[in-house]
Amino acid sequence: xxxxxxxxxxxxxxxxxxxxxxxxxxxxxxxxxxxxxxxxxxxxxxxxxxxxxxxxxxxxxxxxxxxxxxxxxxxxxxxxxxxxxxxxxxxxxxxxxxxxxxxxxxxxxxxxxxxxxxxxxxxxxxxxxxxxxxxxxxxxxxxxxxxxxxxxxxxxxxxxxxxxxxxxxxxxxxxxxxxxxxxxxxxxxxxxxxxxxxxxxxxxxxxxxxxxxxxxxxxxxxxxxxxxxxxxxxxxxxxxxxxxxxxxxxxxxxxxxxxxxxxxxxxxxxxxxxxxxxxxxxxxxxxxxxxxxxxxx
Amino acid sequence: xxxxxxxxxxxxxxxxxxxxxxxxxxxxxxxxxxxxxxxxxxxxxxxxxxxxxxxxxxxxxxxxxxxxxxxxxxxxxxxxxxxxxxxxxxxxxxxxxxxxxxxxxxxxxxxxxxxxxxxxxxxxxxxxxxxxxxxxxxxxxxxxxxxxxxxxxxxxxxxxxxxxxxxxxxxxxxxxxxxxxxxxxxxxxxxxxxxxxxxxxxxxxxxxxxxxxxxxxxxxxxxxxxxxxxxxxxxxxxxxxxxxxxxxxxxxxxxxxxxxxxxxxxxxxxxxxxxxxxxxxxxxxxxxxxxxxxxxxxxxxxxxxxxxxxxxxxxxxxxxxxxxxxxxxxxxxxxxxxx
Lengths: 297, 339
Fold this sequence. Notes:
The structure holds 2 protein chains of 2 kinds.
Chain A: H1 8-40, H2 62-69, H3 71-102, H4 110-122, H5 127-136, H6 143-148, H7 154-165, H8 169-177, H9 182-193, H10 195-211, H11 214-219, H12 228-237, H13 241-244, H14 247-254, H15 261-294
Helix pairs in contact in A: 1-15, 2-14, 3-7, 3-10, 3-12, 8-9, 10-15, 12-15
Chain B: H1 23-30, H2 41-76, E1 82-83, E2 91-92, H3 96-103, H4 105-124, H5 128-138, H6 142-152, H7 160-170, H8 177-184, H9 199-224, H10 228-236, H11 241-266, H12 273-279, H13 285-288, H14 291-301, H15 305-334
Antiparallel strand pairs in B: 1-2
């Protein structure tokens, strides 16, 4: 669509547009690069470092070593990984099964079930009744509470239903004529066709569980069950150094003479977002590529 | 197929809603309404069971989940009308807790904060992704455009714990990036996080930082679906970049803007629990305490479960009414509902 005769005005506009976008990119990335620079600097230099710095002052891996050997962080990492993986597995299995059934137009009571799902989207009674349900079920302080409290996300369910509805009816009927039962049709016909949609909701469930801090915080009294987000929150936002570590014991892990709180905070934040950064390319691939490549036409 | 639902239910409270999921649900509500009502009921029932039981088996875990974790809480919400007792059944007290709630100035403070913070976000954050999508659409080099998009979507996937950590660091009066910049241009350092005049703006700008990139994707997708022939015709007529944006692109995304705007109004009472909860501190709490954080403090921290449930229920009911109005208004205006 490039116009043939670009005037000086158009070129000036182009320069402005590119600069604004570059500025936005800088605003988005700089805070993260700053944390990286601080976490990789020699801890002794950290207190004097500016928030604008993006290059480490005196390269050192002290902070990362300390984090990797820190019991509360290790424990949090294990908890986060365990909760995220089990919860996502359950989420994807049960969401897709339910979506497959609900995508069958002649299913009796389909409309009623839809309305029920819709009600749960529109009306939320709040966190206190949720808490009492968990208590009634005896799940407080159990991993199960945060693993199943959001087992089927109504929005992802709707996305999948819509996707399954687009699968050609003939394919399903052909499989049924071959004697496949509904489970076999689901496994052999529907799931292979739905890979992109499944990948998308899988990634979103992963991000959801990885980032959730509220429910673990409410449901787990036992600090040993805290996922990384809650550990991070307790340390960085609440500033509760003593509860989690105690600065003296921190120093024992590296032998470093002095670890600045700022450096620890920077490393801890990065440590927490690392898995999200790792799957981010996949998110871009499955979720946004279609939209972006649409632009290439 | 890459759909672009906004992943909004990432937090139970912070939700926006995938806008373009128009209608699996809508369709279902209109479909299969009037088939075969004249058959004998018991015959249909028997055939139905024979044919459909495997599907019900598949749905069983999901249905049980919805019953236990979405409908049981509605039943538990009756606590708002009861006094909680440690031993023995709760005592029914009617509207006592609601009366207490509406009599307390604290409740109206948080209600006001909720409304003003939501209003500020709609006024200042809502337009940003629209401008952003228009800007991105003007970039001619696809590689540059994709790189920009890949970067600006990222903050959407970070938790508010992380973003609060980043913002508190960047706004720190001693060594935060913002104050270091102010220093360079000769302005005084400011302690934004403890400044009751500034803290609501911190909410607005952190929300913008987190969501405007990702939200621009929705508008960008809408722009991509505009017929390219319109642009070609306009170029033949010698239309400038500005004229094309004004007369083709903008009108093309007006329905998307309208739907999302109405949706945002429908979610007005969700001023952002995760955000406020992580960015708040004692110095400025009274400026940004919203209904959701009030419920949390009253109930989970303070143990006043009945009062907290009442506040949560109030929000739930008003929120539901607003959401439903938003849906029907949207359907009326744009032909597309919220779901």
